[in-house]
């Protein structure tokens, strides 16, 4: 089974096209104004129009309100929503409201953090294990931080899942081998500066997922 790959935080046509050409299964659009990857609705709409049908459009949110969600789902024609810092009860409501595949991000630093995933059974469709960012950090993701992959050893995943946090072209093959992740997600590992995606790094990352 080929490993699926999401390139997150795309904001330009050339880098979006590189993700599609390189074989990404998912592309991520960030709707969170403090992020250097944040997209307005018009820009998201234009990018979404370039995405072929076999590639899923994922909107990335931080505990969003209904107005933001509704407008982003419409503008970017989202296939899935990825929710950070969103309680299981609210996640279930968003899943029902949008009718979209719903991913719950679980921030991981210790083994105990993984237990949060169980609370999303019945509320989400997929868990995204991401590295926990430091208290007071501006962003809950997209900071290039990695968690200890061995924490996932023998963990009984309550839902389909994905691995994220600090992945890059040099370490993603080892991450897949070590964790058996069915889907990997990257943002800053394929950037030349925060929010600036690099087409060569995107291509290298996607190639490495198949190695
Ligand atoms: O990327 C962002 O700017 C962002 C902002 C707010 C919430 C989540 C965000 N990113 C989520 C992602 O899916 C990233 O791809 C994931 O955290 C991994 O990031 P990185 O460690 O930089 O590869």
Under CATH, the topology is which? TIM Barrel
Strand proportion, as a percent range, falls in: 15-25%
- SS class: alpha/beta
The poorly predicted ranges are none
The CATH architecture classification is Alpha-Beta Barrel
- What is the C-alpha radius of gyration, as a whole number of Å? 16 Å
> What share of the residues lie within helices?
25-40%
Tertiary shape = globular
**CATH level 4 superfamily:** Aldolase class I
Number of separate helices: 7
Count the domains. Answer: 1
Query: For the report, how would you describe the main beta sheet?
Result: 8 strands, parallel, barrel
- Head-to-tail CA distance between termini: 13 Å
Which strands sit side by side, in order, in the main sheet?
A: 1-2-3-4-5-6-7-8
Distinct small molecules: ligand LARABZUK
How many strand units? 10
The mean pLDDT is 97
Can you tell me about this structure?
- The chain has helices at 13-22, 41-48, 66-75, 88-98, 111-114, 172-179, 199-209, and strands spanning 4-7, 26-30, 56-62, 80-84, 101-108, 126-131, 161-164, 183-186, 191-193, 196-197.
- It has one domain (4-209): TIM Barrel (Alpha-Beta Barrel), CATH 3.20.20.70.
- The protein is built from 7 helices and 10 strands.
- 42% of the residues are buried.
- Helices cover 29% and strands 23% of the residues.
- The chain is globular and about 40 Å long.
- It is α/β, with parallel strands linked by helices.
- The longest helix is centred in the middle third of the chain and has 11 residues, at 88-98.
- It binds the ligand O=C(O)c1ccccc1NCC(=O)[C@H](O)[C@H](O)COP(=O)(O)O.
- The ligand O=C(O)c1ccccc1NCC(=O)[C@H](O)[C@H](O)COP(=O)(O)O binds at residues 8-9, 28, 30, 32, 35, 37, 60, 62, 84, 130, 139-145, 164-167, 185-189.
């Amino acid at each position: 089974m080929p490993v699926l790959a999401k390139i997150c935080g795309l904001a330009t046509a050339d880098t979006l096209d590189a993700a599609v050409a390189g074989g990404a299964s998912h592309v991520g659009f960030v709707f969170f104004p403090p992020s250097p990857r944040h997209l307005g609705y018009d820009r998201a709409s234009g990018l979404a129009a370039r995405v072929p049908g076999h590639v899923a459009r994922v909107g990335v949110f931080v505990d969003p309100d209904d107005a933001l969600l509704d407008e982003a789902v419409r503008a970017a024609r989202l296939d899935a929503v990825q929710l950070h810092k969103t309680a299981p009860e609210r996640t279930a409501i968003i899943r029902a409201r949008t009718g979209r595949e719903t991913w719950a991000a679980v921030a991981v630093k210790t083994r105990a953090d993984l237990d949060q995933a169980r609370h999303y059974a019945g509320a989400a469709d997929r868990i995204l294990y991401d590295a926990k960012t430091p208290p007071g950090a501006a962003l809950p993701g997209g900071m290039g931080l990695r968690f200890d992959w061995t924490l996932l050893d023998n963990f009984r995943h309550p839902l389909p899942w994905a691995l994220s946090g600090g992945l890059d072209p040099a370490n993603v093959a080892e991450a897949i081998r070590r964790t058996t992740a069915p889907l990997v997600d990257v943002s800053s590992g394929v950037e030349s500066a925060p929010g600036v995606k690099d087409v060569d790094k995107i291509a290298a990352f996607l190639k490495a997922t198949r190695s």
